[in-house]
Amino acid sequence: MLRNHRRLTVINNPMQRCKKLNMKNLQPSPRFIAGLAAALLCVQSIHAAPATWNNAAGGNWSVGANWNPSGVPGTAADLIFGNTGAGSPNTNDVSSLTNNSLTYDWNNGSLQTTYINPGKTLTINGSGAAGTALLLEGSAAAAPASTTQAPAAISGAGGNLVLSGAGDIVVHLGQGTAGSHMATLDMTGLDGLIASVGRLLVGQANAGAAVNRPSGTLILARTNTITCTGGSPQVMVQDSGSNANGSTASVLTFGQVNFLNADVMRLGGQKGNATLSFNGAFSLPSLKIRNADGASRVSTIDFGYNGAAPTTGNSTVMTTDFSPGTVDLMANLVNIAQGAQAGSGGCTATLTLGAGTFDVNNMEIGWGNANTAGATGTATGTVNINNNGSFGGSGALLRVNTQLRLGRTNNPSGPVTGILNVTGGRVQANTIVSGGGVSTINLNSSTPNSSLTISNTAGSLSSPIRNFSMSDATLTIPALNGGASVAVSNLTVGGSANTINISSIPPIGSYPATFTLINYLGGYTAGAGPLALGTLPSASPAYSGTLVDVGGGVIQLTLTAGPVVNLAMHWTGATDNNWDLTTYNWTFLGIGTNFFNGSSPILDDATTQSNVVLAAALSPGNITVSNNTLQYSFVGGGNIAGAASLTKKGSKTLIVANQGVDTISTVVISGGTLQIGTNDLNGEISAINITNNSALVVDRSGSLSMSAAIAGTGTLTKSGDGKLILSGANSYSGNTILNGGTLQIDGTSSGAGALTTSAGTVLAGSGTVSNAVTVGGQMNPGSANATGIFNANGGLTLSSGSTLNFDLSATDPSNPAVNDSINVGGNLTLNNNQITVNFNGAPGGTYTLFTYSGGKSGNFNATIAGTHFAATLDTSTTNFVYLNVSGSGADLRWNSTSDTAWDTIATNWFNLGSSQPSPFFSGDSVLLDDTAGVVTGITIASGVNVSPSVITDNATNNNFTISGAGHISGSASIVKSGLATLDINTANTFSGTVDVQRGTLRTGNGAALGTTANGTTVEDGATLDLNGQNLGGEAITISGAGDGGGGALANNGAAQAQALRTLILAGDATIGGSGGLTMNNSGGAASLSTGGNSYSLTKVGGNTLTL
Fold first, then answer.
1. 590: Cβ–Cβ under 8 A, 6 or more apart, which residues?
2. Which end of the chain has fewer CB atoms < 10 Å from its terminal CB, N or C?
């Protein structure tokens, strides 16, 4: 609207035109009479210019004196309602009036009300370009105060408002300080709104706009049709490019009948709160959402989106409650709660439906979205599918045609949660995926029943749904050859009756036939119910079967009758060795053919091609490998995408070494050997149950987890240099042999046989071995760099040369939950075994390493490795082995001239006490100085945590850099006392102080200075260079002009819009640098303090400091 004011000139005033006309026609003549008539007409003509309401008492639009300039607004008029007349209604009584734009721009807090008389239509046909305001409620300038209210209403029973043009509907009011300021446009009393505009923007403002911390409320008319065709996103509710307005929410409220058409919608955008709902003044409201053509799917709708800015500490809270009405929505992608890319800003979004159909191709509920290490913002998305009985029927329907993903997280994300609650409504989903965060599905008790229909799968063995509960609900799923239709971690079943319907069944060759329906890891007690089998697909003869709650985390469907299909196919390899969907390498009923999914392949000795290349994703039924002469191998880039079973028969070996994961419900080893892998990363079977009555060998590199329950009489051998993690409830009676790599036992039972490990291997975990354990290599309770209790219930023998490694807490030695230990049920046999300890800080106290119920024979090696503290073993108390730690760590100086590694292995340090080369251990103090020839780039590798007591850098000439994917942890502190520069680029978790006494400390990561527990002090003459980082809540205390006068606090990196929140002056101080530096309330309340003293703050350098 400011643009239109600037264009105002005297020539555009009709009265001025009339004055010029009169001057030309002073002579009395026929032409004068005509001119006079023209002048009279001109006095009453409709002007075409900005028209500002000018009557403080309100009144009718048809009175020219109510406007400035005087005259009834015309076609090109830009209507402006400012402070004048606010609180007194104005009435549009002009028939079929058309204007260029409509603006409510005032700040006195009174209600500015426009009435449109019955049968009248106010048309705003804007000529403004895209990005201009066709209808503006609020102000393009900052409000005078954070409490300013700017309410307006457009009303009129039988009246209509028509908006047309490339411009936008804009409702917003902003202010530099967070508060209750709000622009409100209420059209509850208006009969109809028809808008074909560029964009609909409520509580939205771009970065750098005068409208900072925007808030807006738009309450729509009784009937509304809004079509937006402008730039993307076309619809935005609460989206601030600069700062958030605290907890004040922007609001979009729908009327009785609503049509909203646009390609992209951001409902609840970045840095703020938003609410969508129906107007309670109307009963049984409806909302239909489509693309701009009114028919096709919307491309993307975000309910809660905080991912626009590269980093933010502000959070988004989006609440959408459509439960009072019915919604008809079609979209390609809907996101519920999409978090920030970086920083501490989170996103919480809730969508509630009561009736209608919400039809989407893909849906994300809870998406972390972070792409930067150190991002801590949470994302929580919740969708409630309810039943509004006022509309009859079976409640709201959520239909997801392709994929519904819950709790999608990127590795750097903070906690991410996706929740689907169904209470009397219906959900139909093709596939439901757990995205790595906390995924939850609740089918709640209701009348009518809550219903979930899954066409394919929900979760998988490798990525199960975290929580799944059902109470008096109906679950409809297919029976699949490839394993469970539903895979969950925690299953809860309640109520009095839960029904499982079967929507489809694969072809079956013989009966009985068993299909796994649900796989769960815990939470549900087998047989507790109440679960009942509902409908089966129609067939001739009819299917007959039962639901079998078999325990061990498996609920199955057992069919005893139904249609029979001959599915047996025999491998010949007649053409080549490719197992795909096209090559004639099989016979069916004696005739050569290609493989087809659902068939039951048989591979035996009647072939010359036993090295079988899986060349596609295959879904067989029951696989049988029966080989007494040939050794079979499965290799290639394909995989078994889903099979009901794999049965290994015959005395020879089957090696599974293809590149993909083979998903097989049940594995049975009746003879010979089933070997997984050939000491590389290939070969993986994801199974629910394994019955091993012969030999199972795992020969892998990398890490492989097996959560399947292993039963039978066979043996398990781990070879290869990788790690095997066993977490299932195993009951096999054969021995377990560790010949290579690491075996980590995390299950409550590893079987009934003995466990033997060889030299050079690692036995780890926090599970239980029921029989005797004999260790020939290293034993490390828990997992690498994590604590745990290993239970050897059949006794423990530590062979000569075997070693032990314990991860121990520096601060809580008596707590078994944070310290490694070994419980031995039986005898403990020792052979001068070496113990190595790894503390997560400076240790001290007494630690329990062993408990044993039988006798102890032999001794440990008395020397404890892994620490410079005084550490001694105490075996004087029967059935216990204690470690006593006292003293202090060593004083070390960096001494490496080539190797950059800082860990607990490399001898890259010089012990100032013993004058000998030394490795670093937790609790040691470390010194970085001017020793000549040392490498100044120090690397803490991924997975490495170093916990010194203090890091001192007194170098004048050596500029050190600490980098890498590892961390500095524990209670470490940092003292920077030399004139050189120290760069810290690691994301650290240490809790001690940082004291910059001289020189410059430069951060290369937002967490470089550790936790915010004790803060950072920059003394007179020293500099802390933020280097473009966001230090969040770290309290920074500064004084002096800094190193070389460049500022005690400086930013010489990229501009940082959220550099810090807490700054304390301990004296007169200077801030400088070349990159912009902003201190604000992002992520929490900001403060600038002098401790009550009168200190000065000076700005130097070419950058901009914003407070």
1. none
2. C
